[in-house]
Amino acid sequence: MPKPSFRILLTDYLHPDPNAMRLCIDAGLSHFSLALFRKAEKKVVGFEFYPVSQRSIQTDVLDILNDSPLMSLPFRDVSITYNTSDSVLLPERFDDKAVSKDMLNLIHGDLPTGMVMHEQTGMKGVSNHFRVPSWFHSELVSRFRDVTYSHVYSGILRIMVARKEEWSSTCMHVWFYPGHVIVYLQKNGALQLMQSFVYEVPEDVSYALLNISEQFGLDCLDLPLVVSGFLEKDSILYVELMKYFLVVESDNGSGFFSTDAAFSGYPDHFFTPAFSLCICG
């Protein structure tokens, strides 16, 4: 079983009624996280984050689901967010489920196989067509009685709509995960881009962000760059971003969710992606 990077459990805040609790799963191809959420207070009371290997991902995920302490705690409903890159966002006038597979093959290639899904996002007039490995979906959904699922891009759009008053009309958000980032760009209040990028060295990230800025005619010197997830402020990667972007802000959720002092030993933006998805995933 893979070792968790984080394991935090606030036993004093567990509710004895399973209906009061929700388990939120962020299921990626290089990570897997579980967050236990007390719904009425919007409070996260338990969190585990696991890096997983693509070579052994199916075994790793099964081991986590079988052995994680959070799986034995009381909860009723489960929210699954598929954190995969095979996704196409479409405006309403082009929304056609009949061509979902063809669009995904055209943009992401036809080598990956899996279940093709479709959903409306939290942004008016935008739909999400995405693909998930079949075993991933069947294994997760079959384990739980009351389960909902969505794609991470849809969750991010819901978060951006819910918190739109906090952001500049033109800004770039970057969610950091081990080995990949998700980039959201809006210009003059309109969505321009949502895409995942893999990286091996810090320069991979700065190149992708600089290229996006150039392609959309934005000056990186005054473009607000909002970062969250696993990015240390004293890391080489953060220093690399500061070379090119002068306005770098970390997103701590701004009260969108509630945590305990047990999480305060870590940078407050570390958990924003996972905990925000508990609200809007």
Can you give a write-up of this model?
Helix 4 (about 150-160) crosses helix 7 (about 270-280) and helix 5 (about 200-215) runs parallel beside helix 6 (about 235-245). The longest helix has 14 residues, at about 200-215. It is built from seven helices and 14 strands. It has helices spanning about 55-65, 100-110, 135-145, 150-160, 200-215, 235-245, 270-280, and strands spanning about 5-10, 20-30, 30-40, 45-50, 75-85, 85-90, 115-120, 125-130, 145-150, 170-175, 180-185, 190-200, 225-230, 250. The chain is α/β, with parallel strands linked by helices and about 280 residues long.
Structure in a nutshell:
The protein is of the alpha/beta class and 281 residues long. It has helices at residues 57-67, 100-108, 134-143, 152-162, 202-215, 236-244, 272-280, and strands spanning 6-9, 21-28, 31-38, 43-51, 77-83, 87-91, 115-120, 126-132, 146-151, 171-177, 180-187, 190-198, 225-229, 248-250.
Q: What portion of the residues fall into strands of 2 or more residues?
A: 25-35%
Radius of gyration: 18 Å
> What is the mean pLDDT?
92
Q: How helix-rich are the residues, as a percent range? A: 25-40%
Largest sheet: 6 strands, mixed
Q: Structural class, judged by helices and strands?
A: alpha/beta
Distance between the termini: 26 Å
* Poorly predicted regions: none
Total of helices = 7
How would you write the strand order of the largest sheet? Answer: 1-4-3-2-5-9
Series of secondary-structure elements, N-terminal to C-terminal: EEEEHEEHEEHEHEEEHEHEH
